[in-house]
Amino acid sequence: MLLVKRIFNSLLEVSIGLGVGVGSLLATLPVWAAPSPVFDSIIEEIQTSATGPVRLPAAVPADVEFSPMFDNNSGAPVVRLRAVTDSEGTTTFGVIIMSAPEPTDWPPQNPNDHGLTVVELDEGLQGYAYGDNTIAGLQWVQDGRLYMLNINEQLLSLDDAIAMANSMIGESPITTSPQ
Description:
It contains three helices and seven strands. The chain has 179 residues and is of the alpha+beta class. The chain has two domains: 1-30; 37-169, Protein Transport Mog1p, Chain A, CATH 3.40.1000. Strand 5 (126-131) and strand 6 (135-142) form a beta hairpin. The longest helix has 27 residues, at 2-28.
C-alpha cells in the first residue's frame, strides 16, 4: 500500500509540474489582437487602396462613439475617427491616424525645444508626445514607418492616446492586397 501511495504521489507531482509548465508556456505565447471593431467598415478599403502600411489600434476608448473614415488624399494613408457628439449624429474630430515613410531626420533633435515630450512605448519604442489643450498626439517610428496619432483633447486624454498607440504597436500592419 505504501508503494502505491508513493507512486500515486510521484505521478501527481509530475502531473502538477507539467500542468504548471504548460500553463506557463501558454501564458507567454503572444496573442495577436485584431483592430478594434470600430474599424470593421473600412478594413476592406484600406486593404485595397492604402498607399502604405496602416496600423490600427486594437483598443479604442469605449466612452466615445466613433465613425471611421479612410483616405489617401494626402499621399499617405489617413484614418479618421469622427466622434458622434449628440443624438442627431453630429460629428467632430476625434482621432487621426497617419503613417508615412520614416523621415531622414528622425529622431527629433532637442525634442524639448520643440514642445515634445519623450514617451516610452511598448516593445522598447520611443515616442514623442505633444499637446496644446485642444489637440494632442504621439509620433513614433516602427518598421521604417513614422506613425502619428492625434486626438481631440476635449474628448480623450494623452493617456488614452498612449494606450491606443501601444495597442497599434502590437498590431500587424494592414497592407494592400496583391491585385
